[in-house]
Amino acid sequence: MNPAAKAGTERLLELAAVIDGHAHWWRFPLQEPVKGFLGAGPVFIVGDQPSKSQWRSDHPNRRAFYALLEKIGASNFHLTDLYKRRGEPEELKACLPPILKPLPPDYPEHLNFFRNEVELLRPTRIVALGNLAQTLLSLHLPDLRPIRRMWHFSYAVAHGKLDEYEENMRRAIWG
Q: How far apart are CA 68 and CA 153, in angstroms?
């Protein structure tokens, strides 16, 4: 491994340790061959916020999402959430019109953390996992372009659209 890549990997491990050091923060896990948060490929796949539920290796959403990432050659892409703290489903959606609840007070900390990820890995493409992630990225990090969107894996699993999800994922990631 060249020195720059080694330094990048070490820095990514440091960021993972910061996430792991917060009781209610979460990151996409490593499940070979999918690197999860530790993926250092040229594409970021960004969710809005992790749910409160556990995401065990046998969870249907995780199995489907990770299997498709592997199948399409995206297992080393960086998987992350804009907001790292676990929360209620749709918690951040309530901060958008028409409801307009205030953003959580620690939201700026998470935006800065995400910016550190971007500065470290310098992605060539950012793909939002669902509409909410795309909206939050566009509103709070408008300098990041281009942002593409793919369906959230939970939508594809819940509605039995895994075949269509593969095509949706390919278009979002590869163009």
A: 10
